Amino acid sequence: MPDEDKQDFRLDIFKLLRDELSVSVMPIDADGADPHASTHSGEAFTRILREQFGLDEHSLVAGVVGRIKTTRKGQEILVRAAALLKDRYPQARYLLVGSPFPGNESHLISLKAAMRASGVEDRFILTGDLADVAPAYACLDVLVLPSAMPEPFGLVLIEAMARRIPVIATSAGGPPEIIDHDRSGLLVPPGDAHALARALDRLFADRQLRLQLAANGRARFESMFEFNGFVDRMSALYSETIRLAPVWRASRLCVKNESGTRNL
Fold first, then answer.
1. Closest to 229 (Cα-Cα) out of 8, 27, 6, 69
2. pLDDT surpasses 90 at 33
3. 3-state DSSP call for residue 101?
4. CA–CA separation, 164 and 142 (whole Å)
5. How far apart are CA 163 and CA 177, in angstroms?
6. For residues 106 and 31, what is the distance between their CA atoms, to the nearest angstrom?
7. Structurally, what CATH architecture does the domain formed by 35-225 represent?
8. So where are the chain's domains?
9. In the structure, what pLDDT confidence band is assigned to residue 182 with cuts at 50, 70 and 90?
10. Distance between CA atoms of 16 and 191, rounded to whole angstroms?
11. C-beta separation of 198 from 173 below 8 A
């Protein structure tokens, strides 16, 4: 097939499919992200892990999993939100999992300085990079993605949703495609520490809301992001493309008009 026709084929197939077009994303395996798949079980396992991070049974734990990069990943926004909540929730702790990219250590230095300046240094636990992030997830009451700039997707969100952890994310880039606001998680404007503090306040104050968002998040994960469902959707998409190929060929028959040009 000539290159011109290949391009026309791609464009025309898109036009034929666009009325029923859906977005498919890279899936994850439900078993690998499910705390019930662990050889340890339930609350006892979580309690052991929280003790390893110096967290007691009364702690409310919000966490960020990802590269430490201020102004981009937004950990400094969480610091400001924590400062707004420090008197209301003295039992709140914030777990930061990850490290700066080599050469960007200044981001960690400035983040620690912001913690000290805000009076919340003792509320934060910095784990650095972890070979296995599952123990950190198991400690969380809330997963936060505070990115100040748009995220291409936000894989940590679906990892948390798969583990039945309620999520808060900024409403730029990929997260709005993952989170159904107020149903499977909460969305806040990027760079808005007060909005993030309000979202954390809602979840810290309301255990039932945390449980409801966690259950809905798991259901959304299973319906949209779980591996087997992804395979089924992609297979259906390819089957539909193959089915439409003869329609495309028929529509592209070269019909010479009197001037000798193709009728497209």
1. 27
2. no
3. coil
4. 10
5. 19
6. 38
7. 3-Layer(aba) Sandwich (3.40)
8. 1-27+226-264, 35-225
9. very high
10. 40
11. no
* pLDDT > 80? residue 229: no
Phi, psi of 70 (to 5 degrees): -65, 155
DSSP 8-state assignment for residue 185: B
> Which is it for strands 142-145 and 92-97: parallel, antiparallel or unpaired?
unpaired
At 50, the amino acid letter reads R
Question: How does pLDDT run across 118-154, given as a tens digit for each residue?
Answer: 999 999 999 999 988 888 999 999 999 999 999 988 9
pLDDT exceeds cutoff 70 at 112: yes
Task: Indicate whether 20 pLDDT > 60.
Answer: no
Q: Residue 42: pLDDT band by 50, 70, 90 thresholds?
A: low
CA max distance for the chain:
84
What is the number of alpha carbons within 13 Å of residue 262 lying toward its C-beta?
7
This model's pTM is above 0.85: no
How many residues would you count in the chain?
A: 264
